[in-house]
Write a structure and sequence with these properties.
Number of domains: 2
Structural class: alpha/beta
CATH superfamily of the largest domain: NAD(P)-binding Rossmann-like Domain
Mean pLDDT: 96
């Protein structure tokens, strides 16, 4: 088997795909995500393949320091932390797991929508504090809506966006989308409607970000973007924190223009206590629902994605092209 450098944790592989890990034996070496380039190279100087957590960087310095390197596999869908240009210059494939966790991420997006819509965190806290009846009367007074009466705008109709649209149809809500390219065949199949970006923002009760991080999308949810969203709507981000301008989102929430935000991803990661989204005033903070970037790491998703990575190793060994190559090699 090819020599594999895994910038990740062994227990993750032992749980998701123990058979392939056992078969690899000493051919795979795990290196801590905090190791320096020099430390990494000293442990696996003959690495031919890199397996790497989607949020861990693989820079040109590491790529150029491994003369036998042939492929870099992102464990997830994202690959923006990998220097794809440096890899392409060396003729090294960069692959990802597009679609491997689509269903799981879509479920998390809906969980965040429902959690905000039905004040799940506040309700749980009230019951634990012995305020169940008071909380119930507050809901009677304020009211709460059904998701079936809402319009959800999906930005990015890749595998995750499609999975989200499919699941939302079960709730009976209206779904509109915007992506780089219009997809008429999917509009009919999924029962969704195309909308220009500004129109989608103005009409949607929930705006779900489901696009990749690129130079064009970094910070896309900025003050201008958020200012065009329907008053009282909510932002959902299960893609990448880098898509959102944190300060602008805080301002939109504090001003009351947005009713809430459901965030599985926040930049920079790891999230630190001084992040402005963690330092909102008490009232505003109650309108933000976080999850710790876990949308795509269900048991099924991890198994499927790691099986795909091992299959790409086998293809490379056999002299074939790996699948899901993202850097044009």
């Amino acid at each position: 088997m090819l020599k594999i450098l895994a910038i990740s944790s062994r227990p993750k592989y032992e749980k998701a795909d123990p058979a392939d890990l056992a078969a690899a034996g000493d051919s795979i070496v795990f290196v801590g995500e905090s190791a320096t380039t020099a430390e990494t190279v000293s442990q696996v100087p003959d690495a031919e393949v890199i397996f790497v957590d989607a949020i861990s960087p693989v820079g040109a310095d590491l790529i150029d320091a491994l003369p036998k390197l042939r492929m870099i596999c992102s464990e997830g869908v994202a690959f923006n932390k990998i220097d794809c240009k440096a890899a392409a210059r060396r003729g090294v494939y960069v692959t990802n797991n597009a679609g491997g966790n689509a269903g799981a991420v879509a479920e998390q997006a809906i969980l965040l929508m429902l959690g905000l819509l039905h004040h799940v965190v506040a309700g749980d806290s009230a019951v634990r504090a012995g305020r169940q009846i008071e909380a119930k009367h507050e809901v009677f007074a304020q009211g709460q809506d059904d998701i079936m009466d809402k319009t959800v705008g999906i930005i990015g109709l890749g595998a995750i966006g499609q999975a989200l649209a499919t699941r939302l149809s079960s709730f009976g809500c209206r779904v509109i989308y915007n992506s780089r390219h219009r997809k008429p065949d999917l509009e009919e199949a999924l029962g969704i409607e195309w909308a220009e970006r500004d129109d989608l923002l103005a009409r949607s009760d929930f705006v779900s970000l489901n696009c990749a991080v690129t130079p064009d999308t970094v910070g896309m949810a900025d003050a201008s973007f958020l200012g065009k969203m329907k008053p009282g709507s909510c932002l959902i981000n299960t893609a990448r924190g880098e898509l959102v301008d944190n300060v602008a989102l805080c301002q939109a929430l504090e001003s009351g223009r947005l009713a809430g935000a459901g965030l599985d991803t926040v930049a920079p990661e790891p999230v630190t206590s001084d992040n402005p989204l963690l330092n909102l005033d008490e009232e505003t903070a109650g309108h933000v629902l976080f999850s710790p970037h876990i949308a795509g790491i269900t048991n099924g998703s991890m198994r499927r994605m790691q099986e795909h990575m091992w299959e790409n190793v086998r293809l490379l060994e056999e002299g074939q092209r790996p699948t899901s190559v993202v850097n044009g090699i």
